[in-house]
Fold this sequence. Notes:
There is one protein chain. By secondary structure, the protein is an alpha/beta fold. 42% of the residues lie in helices and 17% in strands. The protein is built from ten helices and ten strands. It has helices at 19-28, 45-55, 86-112, 119-123, 135-144, 151-159, 174-183, 200-207, 222-234, 265-278; strands at 3-5, 31-36, 58-69, 72-79, 187-190, 212-216, 238-241, 248-249, 252-253, 263-264. The protein has an eight-stranded mixed sheet. The protein has a two-stranded antiparallel ribbon with strand order 8-9. It is globular, with a radius of gyration of 18 Å. The two termini are 29 Å apart. The model has no long low-confidence stretch (mean pLDDT 93).
Amino acid sequence: MNRVDLHTHTTASDGTNQPQENVRLAKEKGLQAIAITDHDTVNGIKEAMQAGSDFGVEVIPGIEISTLSKGQDIHVLGYFVDYQSTAFVEEVEELRDVRRKRNRMMITRMQELGIAITMDEVAQKQTKQGGNIGRPHMAEVLMEKGVVSSMEEAFETYLGKEGKAYINPPRISPEEGVKLILCYGGVPVLAHPGLYDQDELIDDLVKVGLKGIEVNHPDHSEAEVKKYHKMAQERQLLVTGGSDYHGVRHGEVFHGDLGSQPVTEEHLSELKKVHEQIN
């Protein structure tokens, strides 16, 4: 059975691997296809597409849009977006500006909590200059300073939605995220809904054009996988899945290892059909 990983991150945002390295790993693990879905940027796609040609791995151009609902981060995946559109690149650049503001606010909050951490230290954790800085970079610094002992502890104690340093400035809504992806020819899919505790949001997003739900994800329990699979079927939505691979930091894989939450070639074919219908 051909396997496909529809959710991976690179140095273009907060992953540790260059885009071509994710593609090489996909080939090594026997994957047929891989999606590059960096946070609020498409900067890694061109390199990944070239690597896909070199390694014989299909690369799906994608993005993970950061939105906000009821104070909660909601991520919307967009597949087959027009990543070469200047207008699209400019719009997601505005989203990156909000991400940078959030990073500064969280660093300030940690400093207020007595943690000696600076934005410069976090920025140094970028493996590629110009990529997005995110919470995994902060977690890496916290681990090196001995404030926490693991990525999981960093998020539970400080960086996750219940963490002491968690802050979310105003962002676009999930509905706006779905519309943005559709506007540039992409297929919008709700990422890892099990992390939000807002299942009612799914029907709201369907009304504005949501096309799928990420069912397979490392942070979903078996019960959640079954629940979201059923919800997708009932609403005639695409079923997708992916590892949400961010690479390895201090020996820890975050969230899951590449290829660990695959879907099949059939799922990818359905995704392509919906993309054709949109365009």
